[in-house]
Structures are given as C-alpha cells and as structure tokens.
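Working notes for the structural subgroup meeting. M.R. asked for a predicted model of this chain before we commit to crystallization trials. I am recording the input and output together here so anyone reviewing the notebook later can reproduce the run.

Input as submitted:
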Amino acid sequence: MPATAQLQGIERFRQLNQSFPQTSQILNHKQQGKKVFGWLCTYAPEEILHAAGILPIRIIGYSNEANTDDGTALLYINNCSFSRSCLQLGLEGQYDFLDGVVGGSTCDGARRLFDIWRQYIETPFHHVMTVPRKYTERAHQLYFHETLQLKQHLEEYLGFTISEEAIRESVLLYNQSRQLLKRLYELRKRDEPPITGAETMEILNAAYRMPKEIFNRWLEELLEELESSDRAFSGRARVMINGSVLTNPEFIKSIEDQGALVVTDELCTSTRYWGDEIILDDGRPILEAISRRYLNNFPCARMYPSDPRFERIIDFAHEYQVDGVISQIVRFCVPYSHDLPLLTEKLQEQGIPTLALDVEYGSSGSGQVATRVQAFLEMLEAGRK
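Returned structure, recorded in token form:
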C-alpha cells in the first residue's frame, strides 16, 4: 500500500470529528434517554461519570481559528483563545445537549471558563474539582476527597448510588482504551511509521467524543489494518510536538507538509490523556486508585515540581528517536509559556533542539509557521551531517 493510501478506519474517525459536537453517537445516547456530560480538563475522572451511565465528552472549541466575539465579551481577551473558543461554542448553543459540566481548578482560563459557563449557559449540573499542584500525600488525600465529593454530588443529582462494581467495569473499559492507544503509539516508533501525526490526532480527537465501547472497537480494527499494511512514512526529521492544548490535525499536517515526521507528542489531548492506567491491584479502594491515577498522570505544566514531567518528555524523545521538539504555545497559556524556558534548557542538555511557535488555538499553520519549520528542519538536517 502506498504511504499516502487512506485507511477505512482513519476515515471513519475523521468523519466523526467533522460532525462534532453533533455526532450520531452523542445524539443516539441522548435519544435513549441517557445523559451526556462535558468535562473541561484531563484531571476530571471520566470513569465515575461513565459508571453512572453518563457519556463523558471533552468540551473543546472550534477546530480552526474562528470568531470568538461573544466568548471574548465574557471571558476577556487576555484569557487563552482555547477557553474563549469553548465558551463561544457554548454560547452559540452547540453544547445545549449537555446535562452536566465537570471542571477543575487547573489554570485560571479553565477555572474562569467554568464560572462563566455556569452563569450564562443553562447546563443542569455543574461541579468543579480542586486539583492540587503537588504530589505529596496531603495532596493525594485532598484529591481523593474531591473525587468522593464528585461521586456524591452525582448520586444526589441522579437519585441513585453508583456501585463499586460499575466503577470497576468503567475503569477496565478506560484502561483498555489506554492500552490500545499505547499500541498505536508503539507503531510510531518504527523508522517508517504506518501513520502520520495528523492522522493520529484524528484518532485522539475521537477518543473523547464518542462512547469508549465503540471507540475501542474502532481502534482495534484500525490497529489490525495498520499492523497488516505496508504503509510507511518518512521525513526529513523525526519531530515531537508539545505544549498547549491542540485538537487541529491541520496544524500538525502543516508541519508534516514541510517534510517533518511527527512521531510523538506531549499534549493534554494526547499522551497526557491516555498515558497512565488506573492500577487496581495495589489494595487501595477503587476511588482512591482513580484519584491517584489522575493526580499522578503524565504531569501538566501546572504541576510542581517540574522535573517528573521533564524526565518523561526526555524519555519520550529518546524512545521515539526524535531529532527535535516543536513547542506550540497558545497565546496567554500561562502554564506552558512559563514552563517553556525550563523545558528548552533541559532538552538542550540532552542535545535535542527546540522550536517555539506562538499560536492561536485552532490555528492551521501559517506562512510564518511554515517558514520557521522549514528553517528548523534545515538546522536539524545540518546537525546530522
């Protein structure tokens, strides 16, 4: 199969994403009389929502740069364009099917988005979780308490108890998703991977836009296609993408169009979403196991100390044999813009060059981005000679 040949499995993920947020899977769930909740950050434990019969989906903004005048009027322009884009869609009624919203105190933009959403958008259920910035035992106890509170609030709203058996089944389902996504990323370690970075983003986007039962089946079928195909992509340099929230495959494609091969990433919409499983066999109560996984998961730039995150990024860079790292930072994304100089220094110590791109959320890449990526790739090629 030529490297450019399209696979049926990738195409159906792409078609689903094009219909979001009004996907047939979401609408079918609603037509069955079931509830759909939106979550605003990867620190929200989806398994508890799923165990209650709820379909959890991620609230995101437009997948391209778009007018956010209404969102900006309520969430001032010095908040990141991701938060304003999410709010814009909410104000336009694109998320009117939601029965609830779960947020977290993760960054100022996300926290204020939750407050304004609660004030101006008539979603019946709202819950915000306090998310510690450390990994200490006290922090874990706090987050465990927050997880208990979420479960209790849900039970009060729904009028029934969420059983431990249902939570365990949801954990196993979500762990299966994480295992399948890990299998997908293992394929990207090949010298000539059978899938591009842009195609991978289509799959990742679908991961939080549809029921996991269907997603897991679709991904397993796609993995069989990929593993049996002779697709093979190559490029001028192997590149890792990191930084702020990213959901637009066209942005990654704009980088790959310059000759880069995007083989891995460190984003809250990718590896930090699926990177760690929930451990069920360590003797902890299941809710504590869930809370430990979410707090200890591949760290966001908001977490302190930063070294565990830097070490995991460096490990990924070595595992995937990357030649350079491209950091895309959404304007006014405070955690990642403050984190960038420290990460750049750590990567340089490992001999890994970096390129920082200042972008708006939803950007598909621009002439300036293309020029800078071209220059970066030329530098990487020169460094190998």
